[in-house]
Amino acid sequence: EPEVTQTPSHQVTQMGQEVILRCVPISNHLYFYWYRQILGQKVEFLVSFYNNEISEKSEIFDDQFSVERPDGSNFTLKIRSTKLEDSAMYFCASSDNPYSNQPQHFGDGTRLSIL
Amino acid sequence: QKEVEQNSGPLSVPEGAIASLNCTYSDRGSQSFFWYRQYSGKSPELIMSIYSNGDKEDGRFTAQLNKASQYVSLLIRDSQPSDSATYLCAVNLQVKTIFGAGTRLFVKA
Fold this sequence. Notes:
The complex is a heterodimer.
Chain A: E1 5-7, E2 10-13, E3 19-24, E4 31-37, E5 43-50, E6 53-57, E7 65-68, E8 75-79, E9 88-95, E10 105-106, E11 110-114
Parallel strand pairs in A: 2-11
Antiparallel strand pairs in A: 1-3, 3-8, 4-5, 4-9, 5-6, 7-8, 9-10, 9-11
Chain B: E1 4-6, E2 11-14, E3 19-25, E4 32-38, E5 45-50, E6 54-58, E7 61-66, E8 71-76, E9 85-92, E10 97-99, E11 103-108
Parallel strand pairs in B: 2-11
Antiparallel strand pairs in B: 1-3, 3-8, 4-5, 4-9, 6-7, 7-8, 9-10, 9-11
């Protein structure tokens, strides 16, 4: 069964540094998403992306964050000038067509630790 | 603020019993509803989806949806210790999914 893959599985970064989290969505999916989950808290929506544009973003997704689809397979989340509170699990997801009730499929996540 | 509410639990049931998990949501425009299972430190795993009022059964799992009451539930029959996890209710608002905080389920052997 096709799956969403994320790299790295664990990223340790010094506060203030930039970090890029990478995702390879399922190949025939058109919609891509990033979520985060701070330890012990709920999964929070960050951003959705379609046709090389952001479709929707949450209040969390401020100027510190950006997303990009640099080629036909990768989907990246960049966090500039990381803060301690950015420490969380970051999940990438993809779906076929959310307007036809298709579910999102999640990758295994990247655990980001900011020191 | 669009919310999805769940009882955080923990819900503890004996092996072989029925576990009943509940969820309410605030946005009446929500169209599709999902239950994900999340083991500690792992990603959410889709176990059920439901779009229409009524019941939907898949193996030991039954999802129930009542749009008038803005209520979604998940029944797990013949609960097994391997079902012990956090169950996340999720609501699709077109291009984003709003998750509840999850209900922790413990199935005692």
